[in-house]
Amino acid sequence: MKVALVGQPNSGKSTLFNAVAGYRSLTSNFAGTTVEYTHGQARVGGEVLELIDLPGLYSLTPTSAVEEVSRDYLLGGDWDLIVNVLDASQLARSLELTLELLDLESPLVVCLNMMDEAARKGMTIDTHALEISLGVPVVEAIGARGRGILETFRMAQEVAASGKRSHAFIYAPEAESMVEELAEKIAAGVQGRQVAVPDRSGVGEGVGVSNQESGHSPALDSAAFSCMAGRCSSACCGHSSAMDGQQGPRVTAAVAVLAAQPLLIRPPTNSKALPFQSPIVNHQSQIAEFPPPRFRALQWVQSDPGQTRREEPEMAPLVEWAQAEIALRTGQPADAAISAARHAACLTLFERVARITRPKADWREQVDRLAMHPIWGYAVLMGVFLGFFRLIFDVGKLGEDRILNLFDAVVAALAQHMNPQGALFAGAKGAVLGTAGAVAIVLPYLLPFLVGLAILEDIGYLSRVGYLMDAAMHRLGLHGTATLPILVGYGCSVPAVMATRILTTRRDRFIAAFLAVLVPCSARMTVIFALVGFYLGANYALGIYALNIVVIAIAGHVLARIWPEISPGMLMEVPAYRVPGVRVVVLKTWWRLREFVLVAFPLLVVGSVVLSLVDYYGWQHGINAALSPFTALLGLPRSVGLTLIFGVLRKELSLLMLMQALGTTHVLGVMTAAQILIFTLFVTFYIPCMATLASMTRELGWRLTLAASGALLALAIVVSLAARGVMLLF
Amino acid sequence: MRDSANFDSPLNLYEAYDHAELRILLITGGWEVRRSFNQMGIQPGDCIRVLRRAPFGGPLMIDNQGTQVAVGKQLAEKIRVEVLQ
After folding, report:
1. Of A313, A517, A522, A717, which one's alpha carbon is 20 to 30 angstroms from that of A257?
2. pLDDT for the residue numbered A222
3. How many domains are there within chain B?
4. Taking a C-beta distance cutoff of 8 angstroms, is the pair A589, A451 a contact?
5. pLDDT digits (tens, 9 = 90+) for A112-139
6. Are residues A520 and A426 in the same domain?
7. Predicted local distance difference test score (pLDDT) of residue A146
8. Do residues A185 and A321 touch, judged by C-beta distance below 8 A?
9. In terms of domains, do A389 and A535 share one?
10. Considering only CB atoms, which chain B residues are within 8 Å of A466?
11. CATH number for the domain including B55?
12. What pLDDT score does A266 carry?
């Protein structure tokens, strides 16, 4: 059985997933996108459940690419049951997605997560009343403490076995007749044919007719069963009188339900005679279409008119008619009318099932008063990041030295067992050194970084960083959320690029990744300080950092011009602080690490082998000659050509190779101060290292990676030439 | 519930005082803007409060029935509000 976990962001879905699915779970991309989901298997009560943890989504009418992909997956119907995870402490808002999911008329279980959080807020929730109102089982859970998780999945099995499905929740009676009209057209398969816009006066009658035709409607029972929210269920009880007198524009919910239901469960044969159905019987065979026509009609009514015209030109006239009609009746745009009605229904539901008393005194408000303070907030931010980097470097350094020594020993051992002059040894040495680069240099820094990132994410601090830095990042054409990748860039570009995943649009990801790789990483820092800092003085080195910040600001401005912003600004939920779950942190780290290992390790090893062989066969002279016009342009010695290529493999290699190429460690003897400065500037800005390129390809696709590399190369040339020009002038 | 005279309220969310009880009258702007606010559970009629604001024209932090949402300046200016007593 395939179970889709659906919930709003920060609802604790992943905690639920991780609690049962575990280490063998996989993250995959939705076909043709960079949007990821996690899937795995869990054994519950002797049955193996296939779990799909979809990215969080606020509603089924998406505003971001991530949400769109999640919705498309849901509407694809490749699942047997939905577990809707709710943050109980945000019940009113969370119910909005639940109401939309009910419209899918599919097996559904609601998991009311974070009940402890709700209690802390002074909320008591009558789960039973909620269950009756929604017409689907509701299970209480505290995912972080493992409570209610198994119960949720057991309930899922029970629901799936019974074949019980959710029922559409009618919340916008004014819109119902239009929605139903659309649904009818959809059910009848009008797509592809010209749609006649119905005469407005005929709407009421149309409802009556389809009502009469359906005769004995199963909706009667199902409506009563699902107890659709107060006014609706009471209206259902008086359905006979409503049916007789109903002609006017104010079609009541009851009639709409009665009229709409037969369409929804119309058998594929399109026969009008419906057999009597108990609502608990599996409707699968009777469902003509998934997603249900009523659901699709509602989606269309709420859609952006321009989009409908582009994507469904045949349906557009009818959709626009329905939207205009709803707007006329409610005095606001159709999408606003429907979402307002849904919002009101959620609030009503919330008031009915939840009681709020005085919340317990909360230390977290005090923390936020400091962490988001206009002045102290930035001090805290700096403290957190300095501490974070300190931790990464301390742990990284510890690992790097030890593991590198290990690899040096391996190379020494190889030299004893093989002919040190042979090509085979050169290749093997390259492979070992490449592995060393991946295992000893990247891994020790990446691992603590990933753990730290997962913890910061889980605590909820990252969204506070976004809030604090939003104004500053706007100047770079980005939002506050993009702060993290750019700051992380000072450590290592690989995790920086991976961190762009927290951004929602492809544009933001690209710009943030581009700017993040422009930031001098720790490897480039060694080059800057060992060359410029050592030979020219610390002020020059710091000058390079300052120049780098200026270049980043300009690049951000230019990129924002080339690829303008579509989203109108920051709108982000700031979740309450939470204690991070060990399991979630470990699993998140593990998945991210595994991805990096799979993509970057092979590249590093192969690249290293190739370069060793180049060195072995003495091809560097040819390469240096080929690059000579380029090195001459920058005014650099010819012998540094190959060094720059090595720098693509690993940035700090360009330093070692420079000394090797020049045949001395006393660089100032063979290069002028100006040449050292230009060389360092070029190395700082040009194409990122192989591991970074690999993770960029992973996050952005090869096209954008190629474009970014070209742009960075051009940028490096421009900056170096400008520096050369300035130095020639003085 | 709605007092039509208040639709002319010149006050937008960004201009409102911190910590005051506010009621959303209208969300101006197009489909996209309405959808984004709707997704965060913010709708006309809701009572909200500005908790704090980031410096240099940064976002506002608002409280909407216990949910805290950061709202950027441009978006905050699209929300017309009235001050409740």
Report:
1. A313
2. 35
3. 1
4. yes
5. 999 988 888 888 999 999 999 999 999 9
6. yes
7. 85
8. no
9. yes
10. 70
11. 2.30.30.90
12. 31
- Give the DSSP letter of residue A352: H
Q: B32 is in which domain, residue-wise? A: 4-83
Helix A702-729, helix A506-518: angle, nearest 10: 40
Please check the confidence at residue A167 and state whether its pLDDT lies above 80: yes
**B62 membership: H or E segment, kind and range:** strand B60-64
Query: Please, which residues bridge with residue A134 across strands?
Result: none
Q: What is the domain extent for residue A258?
A: 173-280+287-337
Give the pLDDT confidence score for residue B17 in this predicted structure.
87
Q: Could you tell me if A130 and A204 lie in one domain? A: no
Chain B, nearest residue to A120 by Cα: B66
Domain tally, chain A? 3
Q: SS3 for B27?
A: strand
Q: CB-based contact (8 Å) between A367 and chain B?
A: no
Question: Using CB atoms within 10 A of its CB, is residue A644 exposed (0-12), middle (13-18) or buried (19+)?
Answer: buried
Interchain contact A565–B (C-beta under 8 A)? no
**Assigned domain for A52 exists:** yes
- What is the pLDDT averaged over residues A551-559? 91
Partner B contacted by A89 (CB < 8 A)? yes
Compute the mean pLDDT over every residue in chain A, rounded to the nearest whole number: 77
Mean pLDDT of A242-261: 35
- Summarize the confidence of residues B5-11 as an average pLDDT: 62
Same domain, A184 and A137: no
* Binding-face residues of B in 22-61 toward A, CB within 8 A: 27, 29, 31-41, 43-46, 52-59, 61
pLDDT for A282 beyond 70: no
Task: Tell which of A107, A142, A162 closes a domain.
Answer: A162
Question: Same domain, yes or no, for A511 and A617?
Answer: yes
